[in-house]
Amino acid sequence: MSGEVVASARAAFHSGRSRPVAWRRGQLQALLRFYDENEAVLCEAVAKDFRKPRQEAIMFEVEFLRNDVRGCLNNLDSWVLDEHVEKNIVTLLDGTYLHPEPLGVVLVIGAWNYPFQLTLGPVAGALAAGNCVVVKPSELAPAAAQVMAELLPRYLDPAAVKVVLGGIPETTELLKERFDHIFYTGSGPVGRIIRAAANTHLTPVTLELGGKSPVYIDSTADLPTTVRRLVWAKFINVGQTCIAPDYVLCTKEVQDAFVDSARKQIKEWYGAEPKASPDLTRVVNERNFLRLKQLLETTKAEVAVGGDTDQEQLYIAPTILTGVAAEDPVMQDEIFGPILPIVTVASRREAVEFVNSRDKPLTLYVFSQDKEAQEDFKNNTSSGSMVMNDAIVHLSVETLPFGGVGASGMGGYHGKHTFNTFSHRKSVLSRDFSWLGEYLGETRYPPYQDWKLRRMALLLKNRKIPACLSLLPYLLVFLLGLASPRLLAGATSAAATAAGTPAGTAILAYIRALLGSWLP
Question: What is the model's pTM?
Fold first, then answer.
């Protein structure tokens, strides 16, 4: 089955149907219609999968994707243009540029926590780049997956876009096929499996993984604003967000003030009984619920806020832990749930060292008005991204590529970065058969001589060429045009006095004199 799907998509690509910009634009416009005409259907699907509130569904799924496609449509004509690059002296008369071409047939394996955004966002960029796409939605969000399988073929070219449903067996079979790129969003352990499978065909991969994204708060931070922004970022989708704040680093004094303010904020937003709030999502399934519950049962930390659970409803209250040790079970892996541990540190230097002692995170959040502190974390830690004095909002900026580093992933996307991910930037040098270009390059030919080596070394020397010299080819043509009657007259005269001397030789001798004494 998977072999037939991939073969069909490859046949469509080789037919050339996905290459024209008009086809790409048509697919993007159809994708935008899919979002516009099925907003309620998409919201209903994620509500069914894990009770995602409508506002979160609109904000993080539908509207995010609309803007993503709008960006592709607004910029597609410029993205597909050749990008001209700098030249050296030998190639001043040539065209040198990067030509974006589609990779071919690509596989997009989506995630369950934002099933539409994290699946169809990459698909839009892949289509903009002119690829055919095999889409594998996550089986852990079955309602959303079913919507994509049923409705996408009604909007997108079914020969070029294939949706494959199923779980681990179906994904395993897909990974046996040869793709030109694999884009995966999910956990680190599965990311390693994806990469190992891709190595069989030397297929490049983009891995959007995750990890424990730290938060640092110091005493200069505006605490009420910090609390609002962090509580919101942590508990949207009940922490089931790859860039959710995973743990907080701060002093004991900041911790006490933060916890007191956060407790009040959670009550204000979600009520005295958060389980009754319509604004809290549920954990996606029982397996993940039990994993999170076990973290609460095995931690040696103090539950300062929340801690309540209800297995029947897959509910875990917004929870804050204090007195957390680095060795605590809750600090070993990405939490991916509504539990926020606070680890106290004595200084900013200790916080930096703590971050650096662990895998590189997907993102890092610093809440501080101290510019020195901001620069310290920016320059002395490594993470996929970094946000100062807010959280998660960097996803709204399509000019900022989103992606990890090290264990948190490889590659990036959003906006043009998605287009680039699914494109090969082909290096192109275009040269004509002009006699001048051939003359300048003749030193490469045998018989080899010292003067040829000296000239070639001079011509190829890596130097900063003034931008004005990019006009040199046009200037040379213009000057030669003006001088051609005189050159030809001189060459004719020389030929009359030295029978057998071609006019071109006389012209070259004249040019040699103009170019300088270093030419023999």
Answer: 0.89
